[in-house]
Amino acid sequence: xPESDEQPPPSTPSTASTPPVYIHPRREPFEHGLLPIPKLxxxxxxxxxxxxxxxxxxxxxxxxxxxxFEAIAEAFQISHDHARLVIETIxxxxxxxxxxxVTAKPSEIGSVGVNVFDLMMFLYIxxxxxxxxxxxxxxxxxxxxxxxxxxxxxxxxxxxxxxxxRSNSRRSxxxxxxxxxxxxxxxxxxxxxxxxxxxESVEGDGEESLVLSMEKLEHLGFLIYFGEKGSERxxxxxxxxxxxxxxxxxxxxxxxxxxxHDWLVENMASAxxxxxxxxxxxxNGPTSASDQDVPxxxxxxxxxxxxxxxxxxxxxxxxxxxxxxxLPNDIKGSSVKVINCHESVIYILAPLKYATVYGCSDATIVxxxxxxxxxxxxxxxxxxxxxxxxxxIANCRECVFFLGVNQTPLLVxxxxxxxxxxxxxxxxxxxxxxxxxxxxxxINRWDAPVxxxxxxxxxxxxxxxxxxxxxxxxxxxxxxxxxxNFLIPNWFEGQQSGSTKDNPFPLPEAYMASQQRNLKNLxxxxxxxxDINLDESRKREVAAALHVCFKDWLYASGNxxxxxxxxxx
Length: 569
Hints:
There is one protein chain. The chain has 569 residues and is α/β, with parallel strands linked by helices. The chain is 34% helix and 18% strand. Strands 10, 11, 12, 13, 14, 15, 16, 17, 18, 19, 20, 21 and 22 form a 13-stranded mixed beta sheet that branches.
């Protein structure tokens, strides 16, 4: 059905000047807010969570209803470290950037705590199951580059479904529309339980009923919002017909939770219908420009395969055997997804809130400054260089992560042979971007990864009993003698230039000493070559031999591709 024929949702009357406004799930909690901690996953709806909510409210401080990591650890019988991880995760996906947990310093976030009702929204969706990866639309093209099954797959030989996801060469991420429909259907199904966690009981006509205040309804904004492309997200209470005309000077009268439930279900049904109709129109219509293949050698920042979604992240997909650059003016929105890229070097030199890297292999990916969260998933033999508030690594193998992170890296799922190292690069606008997104370069927790379960309870696969308690393999630090700096070309030439002249994340002593030794050795080698007493023909032979060795290294390391790309620029 054409978009102009769509029926307006029940929340907003359609006029010539006011386009219809639809309800959407917030992607962030579902993509970056799920933790594989068994004691936080409740499968009985709100039955267990309501008593826990009441206990936490009794422990909370004042009218703000906030609880710190100690209260959370006591309520769920988890460690203090895991309780802090809960607070950090919630802060990274909250719908309000002014919340104290978002603005707190990294060392204070555990004591600042979270609002109990935001915690309830977070806990409820821990029962969510992600969509399985789907068949890739161009499976033949990716078959020769998709991560293959490694020799150490036998470690989890019983977990064939996990291996299937990784080794199947025809898998890719679900589309944004599929994910949105899946998330919205989950929320529609569980809406009654979710509202019961925000509602309070009142007595009337001899029986108890649940009512919802305007203040409590806003906590549902953790999971859903109203809004469309190019417009601001509308607070739920402003879009709700029963609160829309409330006097800001007077507290709004609570309304029956059943009334809120019916209104939201109706809006969700309308939104799901719209998603289905749009998907059908896309399948039957002409292929969009973002679906077209581009030449692998073309590294122009404006012509590679990239497609921003209407509300979701910019998507960089299918780059193979090439270099690819995205600068701030190239990014639409505040999130980026890098999907199915192989044997390439990808630079995303922009301030972001969220970044996801999925299904990449034999690549180097540089993420500029990410203020909320980074997720790296199903990657193999990838080098990731990231400056971020936090990072989660899931189901990866033989990857190296050069990190500048304010919070401990989180390792989940079936990881193997991972290495971590301190951040190792810079570009001229890096410090400006770090300040813009709130990443503190004086704090780097790269060397303190936290390993959780080897099985992700949020996937849709079945797992053998008892395996969910197995801890995933942790990451080892890169040997300081193997640590090298990564040089980013001056992609900002001719554009706005910043003041960053060096790596803003201080190097640990062992890595700094190694770098100084390498520099000293380089200078000694250069001086030795200068001082060699040879005639001109012998000097030319030595120079030719050095050039051959350097060329061999360029081809063996794959860096020859970068050289060609730079020449092409």
